[in-house]
Amino acid sequence: MAGSVETAAPAPAAATPTPQREFTTDDYFQTQRPPANLAEKKEAMRKWVDKWAGVEGKNVVLVTSGGTTVPLEANTVRFLDNFSAGTRGATSAEYFLDRGYAVLFLHRTHSLRPFSRHYSHSLNPFLDLLTITGDSIGVADPQAAKLLPILRAYNKAQAEGTILSVEFQTINDYLWLLRAATGVMAPLERRAMFYLAAAVSDFFLPEDRVAEHKIQSTKGSLSLEMDQVPKVLRPLVQEWTPEGYIVSFKLETDEDLLVPKARAALSRYGHQLVIGNELHKRKHEVVFVERKMREKSIGDDRIRGAETPPLADSDAEGAPNFRRDLKKKKEVFSETWLHLNQLAPNRPEAEIEEFIIDELLKRHQEWIDRGAK
Ligand code: PAZ
């Protein structure tokens, strides 16, 4: 694993303003301290991954889930956060488990978790399901019928140890843990999938600019200047796990940006897939964007027919400009939209993650098969 040093120079005790700087990933890990229990968490992940690495044909997925915080104070009273509840990650983890994957679930503390997510305090309060008869507690129908398959799947995952949950809170925890998790999964080579659904802050405060104590309002207004979080997808793809099947998510609020930004990410980082989602439609509509690498001299027919067509493949470049754009960029993208109302028209309780995971499993298997040739 590149840059596997896990200790960094201790930060000065008091916050001392330094000029804003651009952090490369290496700079980041050399200057920002790791979370206190990183070594223990890494060891737990290594043992768990080793166990599944020894099981032939067992695929393993790292699911990242929930939002990251950016603390404004070292003794943290205030922090910046984002909207993510971890629904995508927790729901997806259940479907991965159901389809036979082992799941390393890297999630934000207190965000939704697989199985228990069905009984979150706001949506479906746990105590409301329970009945008392004499001194016994039970669950009455219709809740019992719904709970039974969930409890069975939960007990199975617990008994088999197919899920390992690891928590992060801050952007710093997340980056260190992501690197550690990716490093321990690298020996799985193509059997490893990375499903990066966490909503990760793009900005952070380097620790030498974080106030030690609660910021006092007596000082007047608060100005914050944050630095950009380094784009760790690049080393993740190129150095940390060059054989892994890597799926990143792209969230936008302007739908028109989804596909162009997904394509730009694929061109820049060279990973396998971007799943685009618009904030308000994310529970019922996503787009899979994939880049098809082509040799300079390959003809259109071979390009068009080269890959197994997914659900509704289309040439992302648009037919009229296909040849011209291909010559210019030598890059072709495919887009596959998943619309829940089309995929499960008569199942009001269906979740789009079921279809996302089934589509991904096909593509991951193709990736594994291509590596075996
Ligand atoms: O956690 P959630 O289900 O509320 O939201 C999921 C999501 C929108 C955070 C995820 O699908 C996603 O797009 N993650 C990547 C966000 C980004 O950094 O662009």
Looking at the overall shape, the CATH architecture of the largest domain is 3-Layer(aba) Sandwich
Rg to the nearest angstrom?
A: 22 Å
Q: Please list the strands of the largest sheet in the order they lie side by side.
A: 7-4-1-8-11-12-13-15-14
Order of helices and strands: HHEEEHEEEHEHEEEHEHEEHEHEHH
CATH superfamily of the largest domain: CoaB-like
**Distinct small molecules:** ligand PAZ
Biased composition (Low complexity): 7-19
InterPro entries: CoaB-like_sf, DNA/pantothenate-metab_flavo_C
Domain DNA/pantothenate metabolism flavoprotein C-terminal: 60-112, 184-283
Keywords: Ligase
Q: What does this entry show, briefly?
A:
The protein has a 9-stranded mixed beta sheet, with helices on both faces. Strands 2-3 form a two-stranded antiparallel ribbon. Strands 5-6 form a two-stranded antiparallel sheet. It has 373 residues and is α/β, with parallel strands linked by helices.
